[in-house]
């Protein structure tokens, strides 16, 4: 069984989602199934079919979250070394072409959210950053062309 690396924040978000699914969405869906059953003929009942599909999705997601939380390896970014970029590191990159600085935190695929500055270690940019030290240059080939960055700082 492989451990799943998560930050404390990512673990809390997953746990909150699991609780919401179990305590709010699952009961609401059960009521929807009961109401759809009350309409009669289930073979031609679109509401019943939709509610059963939703039930299947919810149960699958609940199982997935329970598995990930049970196998979580919580990484505390505050305890990480800052000599090279690793999972959980916050990094500042400078776009060599534009001089623009961006800050990202390296997280797992389940936690990635570009709007929050969190990129997956399995993304092309995340893979390029892992193992780099401040001052290192990284070249990323993206659909829009090649981009060059310098790792300015590990926070």
How many strands, which pairing sense, and closed or not: the largest β-sheet?
5 strands, mixed
> Could you tell me the strand content as a percent range?
25-35%
Structure classification:
alpha/beta
The global form is elongated
| SS elements, strand count | 7
What is the C-level CATH assignment of the largest domain?
Alpha Beta
CATH architecture of the largest domain: Roll
* Biggest sheet, spatial arrangement of strands: 5-4-3-7-6
CATH superfamily of the largest domain: Transcription elongation factor, GreA/GreB, C-terminal domain
Radius of gyration (CA) equals: 21 Å
The run of helices and strands is EHHEEEEHEE
* CATH domain topology of the largest domain: Chitinase A, domain 3
Q: Averaged pLDDT, please?
A: 92
Work out the count of structural domains. 2
What is the helix content?
Answer: 40-55%
The termini sit apart by 32 Å
Instruction: List the uncertain runs.
Output: none
Written overview of the protein:
The protein has 155 residues and is of the alpha/beta class. It folds into two domains: 4-74, Helix Hairpins (Orthogonal Bundle), CATH 1.10.287; 77-154, Transcription elongation factor, GreA/GreB, C-terminal domain (Chitinase A, domain 3, Roll), CATH 3.10.50. Helix content is 40%, strand content 26%. It has three helices and seven strands. The strands form two sheets. It has a five-stranded mixed sheet. A two-stranded parallel ribbon has the order 1-2. It is elongated and about 70 Å long. The two termini are 32 Å apart.
